[in-house]
Write a structure and sequence with these properties.
The chain is built from seven helices and ten strands. By secondary structure, the chain is α/β, with parallel strands linked by helices. The two termini are about 35 Å apart.
């Protein structure tokens, strides 16, 4: 393959790997021209991390459309024109600055949200680091810490800081957007390399599994979500397609249904956007 072609495909692979999954044949080339209808679950307050673009922004958009109050966090929320525009039209959208790897930033958010009940906390902020230096023989060891801090430690920082808000909410649900790249049972989603990304998602998964047990006495439900191979950059609209790529509206709409219907029996599980339980 020519170098120019490889360069063109690289960002595609990086974008969809946030939700690497072995999609069944019937799930190939799925698309959704419109957001799925909201489930009948009661509305409430949801906090979404990494809300400036991609899956995070789509969560914000769909929850607002469904009548929820949304606390949308990002490292630099005012630099996301889509997020700012959405907030300007919807008084139920509250923009908050948050860097999930910065302890001071997390502590500051906790203080600003003191006394604010949160029904659903969605830990979405994450990155693949474009899989740079993640191939064996060419590993960039200095990048390991970055992905572990962002993809695994970050969600735990945020969850620990805001667990009191979630406990004060009615629905009491904590979710983490993960990936089959971190699944032992799915052999890392079947993708080669990606060592640092896979390790960070595996760490996230096991921490959420443990958290589900620790928070059970407090009536809080915890689960991981698998979004599938999501086209977060609109590649399909530009004619770039890959087998199994899922439309972002379909993926997020499906994950919202999973969240809405989450039961105590499902706490401590890993669920694909279409409702299928995934292996740890």
């Amino acid at each position: 393959m020519p170098a120019t072609r490889r360069a063109a495909l690289f960002p595609v692979l990086a974008a969809i790997a946030l939700g690497v999954a072995a999609a069944p044949p019937a799930a190939l080339s799925q698309s959704a021209p419109a957001s799925p209808a909201a489930s009948p679950a009661a509305t409430g307050t949801v906090l979404v991390t990494g809300a400036s673009r991609g899956i995070g922004f789509e969560f914000v958009r769909q929850y607002v459309e469904a009548g929820w109050t949304v606390i949308a966090t990002a490292r630099k929320p005012q630099e996301s024109s889509d997020l700012v525009e959405l907030a300007s039209r919807n008084p139920k959208v509250r923009l908050e600055q948050l860097d999930v790897v910065d302890a001071a930033s997390v502590a500051a958010l906790k203080e600003r949200l003191a006394g604010v009940p949160i029904d659903v906390l969605i830990n979405n902020a994450g990155d693949t680091d474009q899989f740079r230096g993640q191939s064996f023989g060419k590993l960039a060891h200095d990048r390991f810490g970055y992905l572990m801090e962002l993809n695994a430690h970050g969600p735990m920082r945020v969850t620990e800081a805001l667990v009191g808000n979630v406990e004060a909410g009615r629905q009491k649900k904590i979710l983490a957007v993960s990936s089959l790249a971190g699944s032992f049972g799915a052999n890392g989603g079947g993708m080669p390399g990606g060592y640092w990304y896979k390790a960070s998602k595996a760490a996230l998964n096991v921490m959420m599994l443990s958290l589900a047990q620790d928070l059970k006495p407090r009536g809080i439900l915890v689960a991981c979500l698998s979004p599938g191979q999501v086209d977060t950059q609109g590649y399909a609209k530009r004619g770039i397609t890959m087998p199994g790529m899922v439309d972002i509206k379909l993926s997020v709409g499906g994950m919202r249904k999973v969240v809405d219907g989450l039961t105590a029996a499902q706490s401590g599980t890993f669920i694909r956007y279409n409702g299928e339980v995934q292996p740890w």
